[in-house]
Amino acid sequence: xxxxxxxxxxxxxxxxxxxxxxxxxxxxxxxxxxxxxxxxxxxxxxxxxxxxxxxxxxxxxxxxxxxxxxxxxxxxxxxxxxxxxxxxxxxxxxxxxxxxxxxxxxxxxxxxxxxxxxxxxxxxxxxxxxxxxxxxxxxxxxxxxxxxxxxxxxxxxxxxxxxxxxxxxxxxxxxxxxxxxxxxxxxxxxxxxxxxxxxxxxxxxxxxxxxxxxxxxxxxxxxxxxxxxxxxxxxxxxxxxxxxxxxxxxxxxxxxxxxxxxxxxxxxxxxxxxxxxxxxxxxxxxxxxxxxxxxxxxxxxxxxxxxxxxxxxxxxxxxxxxxxxxxxxxxxxxxxxxxxxxxxxxxxxxxxxxxxxxxxxxxxxxxxxxxxxxxxxxxxxxxxxxxxxxxxxxxxxxxxxxxxxxxxxxxxxxxxxxxxxxxxxxxxxxxxxxxxxxxxxxxxxxxxxxxxxxxxxxxxxxxxxxxxxxxxxxxxxxxxxxxxxxxxxxxxxxxxxxxxxxxxxxxxxxxxxxxxxxxxxxxxxxxxxxxxxxxxxxxxxxxxxxxxxxxxxxxxxxxxxxxxxxxxxxxxxxxxxxxxxxxxxxxxxxxxxxxxxxxxxxxxxxxxxxxxxxxxxxxxxxxxxxxxxxxxxxxxxxxxxxxxxxxxxxxxxxxxxxxxxxxxxxxxx
Length: 669
Fold this sequence. Notes:
Blueprint: H1 5-14, H2 23-33, H3 60-69, H4 81-91, H5 97-101, E1 114-116, E2 122-125, H6 126-141, H7 148-160, E3 169-171, H8 174-194, H9 197-209, H10 212-222, H11 227-242, H12 250-274, H13 276-279, E4 290-297, E5 300-304, H14 305-309, E6 318-319, E7 321-323, H15 324-330, E8 338-344, E9 355-356, E10 362-365, H16 366-380, H17 383-386, H18 392-400, E11 412-414, H19 443-452, H20 455-458, H21 466-476, H22 484-502, H23 504-512, H24 525-605, E12 618-619, E13 626-627, E14 634-636, E15 643-645, H25 646-655
Parallel strand pairs: 4-8
Antiparallel strand pairs: 1-2, 2-3, 4-5, 5-7, 6-11, 9-10, 10-11, 12-13, 14-15
Helix pairs in contact: 1-8, 2-3, 3-4, 6-7, 7-12, 8-12, 9-12, 10-11, 11-12, 16-22, 21-22, 22-23
Keywords: Coiled coil, Metal-binding, Zinc, Zinc-finger
GO biological process, one term: innate immune response
Coiled coil: 533-581
């Protein structure tokens, strides 16, 4: 992809500066991506000497490998460190991720996501505008004090709180953002140059009279923050207040740090106030278009009803959708002055990327929620290794009955990590999936593993699905041989098929929500029927197309034949005229030959023929009979002087206008 010059300039504000990168954010994102409890002990690693230090850029794989090595083998299902990191990077890329991942203290760590509109214009979420603002501010402030970016990050996050629940978007205007950065830099430089020694001395005097707690309170008024960020702020101020250098007192160091913090935050405040369309909620009197997300999942496009109508769903945790066609047909008035933002739904291997709701929460599609819950049950809680076969249907009904419906319309479910944990008590020991051999595992190994885990007791028919699942896992493997993570996938998929076969309602739900293709080797009767119907419809469409093409070809042939007939008629008429002309020329040649012969006779014998004696017989070209000498019922062509019988000429002129000899116009009789 070729970037424009503006995009190249703006890329430095989209990317988090390397000096600001922090391992804590990726660590928290890994906690959310992996199954509940798999990394519960990993927080202790933060104090480990092996834990990566800041700046963190380029050490991401190192951290993930550290988490894998200290997970008590629980992360084997996620593959290599590179694969897990790749999936986390897909999963974490969405507006408002800081709120879900609870990265309150850290600087923004994730690159903002750019969305195209239906008009193919670029847009960015308002919440992500604060990421750009942060990157601009800390790039300017990093050269002053090493702790200044942290203070500026706290300030930016405190200001972002006003639109924390917003799902508004603004145009991604590279030129405007570049001007905004230059204005910020110029104002900070000007304010720093205008700071007088007297002002500095006044601050030094003030801080020399304050104790540590009073100094912290002064900074708090400058940077209002949540409790977690206040703790960070307190630590920074304490370090400044307790630090001394040979040439500077602690009061002087604290005063100069406060001065720069004050200048930078004041400029940030001015930038936000001057650009309310970028950083503040849309006012009711605003003329800017309303932005609505159009979610795209394969060939389906739909919107969230609560985003359009500002209404709550009848069912808790459920967010219904509406298609673009329905919206324009039934609610056309709501589409005026609206910019539709295309929002592709993305999925990592094990989890779908969360989506912010109008109420400030997060959700995923119901079909994604189903697969994530099933993964939690199979590998997290190992539920089907602990349940009796007879208890499975009721267990599934209890787990899914209230949230999965038989509608064909896609719908969202709000994101709650503790949903299952509050409903099921499965604290019974169960076996772990064993490691695959270095050279991979076979179909028989898979069947043996299903028996080893006790799943053949819960699902007596489970080994019947092993072959189709094994073939599909083998097809999708990333390594040269089937690895342990592939064995986890195969065990999970075999259980999935069994669950769907046990509960028809769940099977119908998966079909209606277009999830059948995500179950390896699953044979869905509804899909087969639809495919058969689609094939028939496709064949009918092909036949209709062929018939239409045949009609067009036939019509073309008719038109070509008609054109050829006209050309043939024209050629026939031309041929007739040439034949007549040829005959005329032959007559003329004969006359000339006879005249020449007469002339020769006169010369040879010295005899002179009188005009009456040498009269030639003239032929009528129409009837091809001679015109007798002295015959007065004749007509002469005014051009070639050729004579015809009057009767012959009258009959000829009924069908023609031209002289049969020269094609000149004959006089009308």
